[in-house]
Automatic annotation (TrEMBL):
Species: Blomia tropicalis
Cited InterPro entries: CHIT_BIND_RR_consensus, Chitinase_insertion_sf, Cuticle_Struct_Prot, Insect_cuticle
Pfam families, A to Z: Chitin_bind_4
Protein name according to UniProt: Uncharacterized protein
PROSITE patterns for the chain: CHIT_BIND_RR_1, CHIT_BIND_RR_2
Signal peptide (UniProt feature, chain positions): 1-16
Length: 183
């Protein structure tokens, strides 16, 4: 019965019509007198056939007898592992903090495209570090960053004319921009 409904459903779908099944189709008291299935495309409804129940012989299922056999458990031979002691050395004591040593360095370079890069940094015996780096290209766009790192933390000032930058002070960094505002 289900196969017939599925086949009729496929026919209805293929022909773009609506499949309507009588509400009494599955609730009929007489299986041989199932209701007619209609296909329609709006208002016109035409019967396309009658489904009749076909008796099917069902064989009873024979129970299966399972006989479980115990699985023999074999003892496992375990070989002892020989453990040798390892000498562990304590970590060395932290080195005493030495007084900062003064230092300084600087460099400048220019590539074949006219991009110039430079940096200089120095540190004194109090641990104060000051420095700067510069970047400029052949089109005149430049950035100069000066910075200080000391007991008060790291502070930087950026001077630039890079397009899209604005004068601001985010995260304790001062940005001074001379770029023209683009809209």
């Amino acid at each position: 019965m289900i196969k017939a409904v599925i086949v009729l459903g496929l026919v209805a779908i293929a022909s773009a019509q609506v499949l309507r099944i009588s509400p009494h189709l599955f609730g009929s008291s007489s299986p041989a007198q199932l209701q007619v299935i209609h296909l329609g495309n709006g208002g016109a409804v035409a019967p396309i056939g009658r489904i009749q129940a076909v008796p099917v012989a069902i064989r009873p299922v024979q129970p299966i007898q399972l006989q479980l056999q115990p699985v023999p458990i074999r003892p496992v031979q375990v070989q002892p592992i020989q453990v040798r002691p390892i000498a562990i050395q304590a970590a060395p004591a932290p080195a005493k903090e030495e007084a900062p040593q003064p230092y300084g360095f600087a460099f400048d370079s220019e590539d074949e495209f006219g991009t110039k890069i430079g940096r200089q940094e120095s540190g004194n015996e109090q641990g104060v570090i000051t420095g700067s780096y510069t970047l400029s290209d052949a089109n005149g766009i430049s950035r100069i960053v000066t910075y200080v790192a000391d007991d008060d933390g790291f502070r930087a000032t950026v001077k630039t004319n890079e397009p899209g930058t604005l004068t601001s002070n985010p995260a304790d960094v001062s940005i001074e921009s001379t770029a023209s505002a683009r809209k």
